[in-house]
């Protein structure tokens, strides 16, 4: 008997978990806006046309004396902008901060029906997600919110990394998880002073090859955590994201960091500066040559079973599934 590939789920690109309907949207960049700055708010209608997600940031990078202004600014921009199919998210303050409760009460009360996702920072375990889940349920009920607001966790403490599997599966509201390399570096006592990206001293020196100068290879500081996060997300049916890249002047390094994350299974990254929007768009959209090759494989194996040779390379059921991920993503991006 021939089994069709009905058992296949393209988890890494955000297929719904079996128990709920999560909209499968392209979210290549989560674009951060500081909502207390009027000049930045004024740009939002235009930015919303260029990005997949607009996020009003209330947490780190917003000064303590501007927290209320940021919250009010977010509500104003949410009310006054037509986001169309672009996602509207907020990054709330940490649950143990003085601002978190009012962030949710005020925002869900005022614009709960426009808000797609709440990004929760400093998540340490599933208990943080359970708390926010219940709080959102209360506020949705009180304010007549008609669609569930989803939760996106930032993985940025050593405790959170230890508990990432449980965090990913903590609630049907879970949308995804982003790596937060800056806070995570501090939490782990890593000896860096950067927001994401590499470090020139994190390297391997190749063995001597006769008299030739010895090659040095810089390593990816974030490989382990991204891979661990991707496995947790894929097994829970949610999406993984790389977070911020703080050196806005270094486009090539940002692109390389985003690409590593994409190749490992991430769906997108944060854009903190307009130049990073195009980088994310380029990196997190599949390569046309790769898509063309993947289509050839799918066409050569219509039911996804068996083995064929294409362009000198062996393809089988497993590569069929890899190709399906690439072709599905290309369809989503084109839609
Ligand atoms: C993001 O919040 C980070 O800490 O990198
Ligand atoms: Mg952080």
UniProtKB/TrEMBL annotation:
**Record-listed substrate binding positions:** 91, 156
Instruction: Tell me which residues bind Mg(2+).
Output: 156, 183
The record's keywords, sorted A to Z, are: Lyase, Magnesium, Metal-binding
Which GO molecular function annotation, any one, does this entry have? lyase activity
Q: Gene3D superfamilies of this UniProt entry?
A: Phosphoenolpyruvate-binding domains
The family annotation for this protein states:
Belongs to the HpcH/HpaI aldolase family.
Question: Which lineage do the record's taxonomy fields give for this organism?
Answer: Bacteria, Pseudomonadati, Pseudomonadota, Alphaproteobacteria, Hyphomicrobiales
The processes (GO biological process) annotated in the record are: oxaloacetate metabolic process
Ranges for the HpcH/HpaI aldolase/citrate lyase domain? 29-255
Q: What is this protein called?
A: CoA ester lyase
Task: State its cofactor.
Answer: Mg(2+)
Task: Tell me the Pfam families matching this sequence.
Answer: HpcH_HpaI
Q: Does the keyword Coiled coil apply?
A: no
Is Signal tagged as a keyword?
Answer: no
């Amino acid at each position: 008997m021939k089994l069709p590939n009905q058992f296949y789920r393209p988890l890494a690109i955000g297929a719904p978990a079996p128990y709920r309907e999560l909209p499968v949207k392209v979210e290549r960049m989560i674009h951060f806006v500081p909502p207390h700055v009027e000049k930045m708010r004024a740009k939002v209608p235009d930015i919303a046309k260029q990005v997949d997600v607009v996020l009003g940031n209330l947490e780190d990078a917003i000064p303590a004396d501007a927290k209320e202004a940021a919250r009010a600014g977010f509500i104003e921009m949410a009310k006054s902008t037509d986001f169309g199919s672009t996602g509207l998210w907020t990054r709330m303050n940490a649950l143990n901060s003085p601002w978190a409760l009012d962030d949710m009460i005020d925002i869900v009360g005022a614009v709960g029906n426009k808000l797609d996702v709440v990004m929760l920072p400093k998540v340490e375990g599933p208990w943080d997600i359970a708390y926010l889940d219940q709080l959102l349920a209360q506020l949705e009920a009180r304010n007549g919110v008609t669609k569930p607001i989803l939760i996106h966790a930032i993985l940025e403490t050593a405790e959170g990394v230890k508990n990432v599997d449980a965090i990913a599966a903590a609630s049907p509201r879970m949308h995804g998880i982003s790596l937060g390399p800056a806070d995570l570096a501090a939490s782990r006592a890593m000896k860096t002073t950067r927001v994401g990206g590499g470090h020139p001293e994190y390297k391997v020196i190749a063995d001597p090859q006769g008299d030739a100068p010895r090659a040095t290879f810089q390593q990816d500081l974030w490989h382990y955590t991204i891979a661990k996060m991707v496995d947790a997300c894929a097994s829970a049916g949610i999406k993984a994201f790389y977070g911020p890249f703080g050196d806005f002047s270094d486009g090539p390094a940002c692109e390389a960091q985003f690409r590593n994350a994409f190749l490992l299974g991430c769906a997108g990254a944060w854009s903190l500066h307009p130049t990073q929007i195009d980088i994310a768009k380029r990196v997190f959209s599949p390569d046309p040559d790769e898509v063309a090759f993947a289509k050839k494989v799918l066409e050569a194996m219509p039911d996804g079973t068996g083995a064929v040779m294409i362009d000198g390379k062996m393809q089988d059921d497993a590569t069929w599934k890899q190709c399906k991920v690439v072709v599905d993503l290309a369809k989503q991006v084109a839609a």
